[in-house]
Amino acid sequence: MAGKGTPATALLTKHKVAHTLHSYDHDPRAESYGLEAVEALGLEAARVFKTLVADVDGKLTVGVVPVTGSLDLKALAAAAGGKKARMADPAAAQRATGYVLGGISPLGHRSRLPVVVDESASGFPTVYCSAGRRGLEVELAPGDLVRLTGAVVAPIAG
After folding, report:
1. Is 112 helix (H, G, I), strand (E, B) or coil?
2. Do 117 and 151 meet the contact criterion of CB atoms below 8 Å apart?
3. 24-69 pLDDT, tens per residue?
4. 3-state per-residue secondary structure call for 9-69
5. Element containing residue 143 per DSSP (H, E)
6. From its phi and psi, is residue 82 left (phi > 0), alpha (psi between -120 and 50) or beta?
7. What backbone phi and psi angles, to 5 degrees, belong to 117?
8. Among 8, 102, 103, 123, which residue's beta carbon has the most beta carbons within 10 A?
9. What confidence tens digit (pLDDT) does each residue in 58-77 have?
10. CA 150, CA 82: separation in Å to the nearest integer?
11. CB neighbourhood size of 58 (10 A)
């Protein structure tokens, strides 16, 4: 995997967290990055999570929800201790995380951002999320995801 590392994979390695990387050929025409990963890797959709960046009362906040659902902005705001949330400007999300859209991982951000993981992740032995670039997913225990990101776990999927 030389030359394919990302800040997310470096963080996992540094903390000696058990994980498995799954790569696939990203199709630039794919309408949904998450559903593309589900299809390409033959995964159970409920176990694949997307990383979305929102603006909660002026502070960028990360929501991690199943690819089959949507981010409930009111629930995210409440979980983050805020009043109002809206999706973040894509350029601001890319700057703050250091990742490109479709490859934003909940791990290894350039700036430390609050993270909220949907409670459904806790129901699986492992979950999948972006490893920091399009076409690369990481499988890890939800508890490790929460611990490494300092996440709050809450019902934020719509």
Report:
1. coil
2. yes
3. 999 988 888 889 999 999 999 999 999 999 999 999 999 999 999 9
4. HHHHHHCCCCEEEEECCCCCCCCCHHHHHHHHHCCCHHHEEEEEEEEECCEEEEEEEECCC
5. helix 142-149
6. beta
7. -105, 130
8. 8
9. 999 999 999 999 999 999 99
10. 17
11. 7
Residue type, 102: G
Cα-Cα-Cα-Cα torsion 57, 62, 65, 71, nearest 10 degrees, comes to 20
C-beta neighbour count of 72 within 10 angstroms = 19
Contacts of 16 (CB under 8 A, 6+ apart): none
DSSP one-letter string for 66-102 = ETTS-B-HHHHHHHTT-S-EEEPPHHHHHHHHSS-TT
3-class secondary structure, 8: helix
Compute the distance between CA of residue 66 and CA of residue 51 in angstroms, rounded to an integer. Answer: 9
CA 13 to chain CA centroid, Å, is 18
Query: What is the distance between the alpha carbons of residues 92 and 71, in angstroms, rounded to a whole number?
Result: 18
Other Cβ atoms less than 10 A from the Cβ of 44: the count is: 11
49 contacts 64 by C-beta, under 8 angstroms = yes
